[in-house]
Amino acid sequence: MRAVIAFLWLLHWLPLPVLGRFGAGVGSLLFLVLGKRRHIALTNLRLCMPELSEQERRRIAREHFRSYSRSIFERSILWWAPEARVRKLIHVEPAVPQAAMEDGPTILLCPHFVCLDVAGVAARVIPVCSMYVPQKNAAFDALLRHGRERYGPVRLVTRKEGIKPILRALRDGLPYFMLPDMDFGEKDAEFVPFFGVPAATLTALGRIAGTTGAKVIPVVATFMPNYQGWRVRFYPAWENYPGDDMIAATRRMNAFIEERVREAPAEYFWTHKRFKTRPPGEPSLYE
C-alpha cells in the first residue's frame, strides 16, 4: 500500500490532461477485466434506463469505468497539489453559498458521483462535518484523513457513532456534508423508487432536516470537457422541505438525483449494488 501511495504522489506532478487520460485508459482496461463490477453496472443500467439499447448501456458502463478510474488518479492532485492549483481547476457554479451555510443549520446533499471529493473541497470555505468510514489499512486510512483535513477544520463522524454527533455539529454551526444515496440495508430506510425501481433508501436527510430545521443545499461535482478541471454546481436550497411525510421527502431526494444522473450518466456510481436490499420475498437482482 505504501508503494501505491508513493506512486499516486508522483502522479500529482502531471498536468491534469495527462493524468486524466492515463486514468481513463486504466479504466478501459478495468472494464474488460473486472467482470463482477461490470455485471453490477450493466444490471443497474438495465434497471434504471430500460429505454436505452444494450449497446448504449454498455457504452455508459464503459465510460463509467473510465470516469471512476480517472477520478481515483485525479485525487492525487486533491491530496498533494498546492491549494492554489486545486482551486484553479475547480469551477463553481454559480458560487459557494457561504452566507447561507453560515446562516443556520445546513445540509449539503452530495449524491454519489465520481467527483464527489471535489465537491467536498469546494464546500470547504468554512469548517464542515462529514461521515467517515475508517479503513482497515492504516496507511490508506491516514491518506484519506489527510485528504479530508488538508483544506481546513472538518469534524469526521463514523457510522458507528450514529446521528447524535451530526446533530451536535449542526447545532455548532457546521454544515453537514451528506451522501445518503447508497444501499445501507433496511435499517433507517424505506423502499422508495429510484428510476422506478424500489430501492432501500435512507430517510435520514428528511429526518435530520426536520429535527434541526436545517436547509438542504444540493451540490454535484462533474468533469469539465477536455480535461479542463471539475465543475461544482451548488443548487438553490429546497423550499418546504421536508414536510410531514418522510417517505415523500425521500422520494423528492431520489427524484432530484435521477435528474442529475441523466445529465451525466457515466459519472454516477453504477458499480455499487444500489438495489441489493430487496423487499420481503423478492429475489436478488444481481444473480
From TrEMBL:
It is found in: Cell inner membrane. Keywords: Acyltransferase, Cell inner membrane, Cell membrane, Membrane, Transferase. Its main location: membrane. The keyword Cell inner membrane applies. It comes from the Bacteria. GO terms for molecular function: acyltransferase activity. This is Lipid A biosynthesis acyltransferase. It comes from Massilia niabensis.
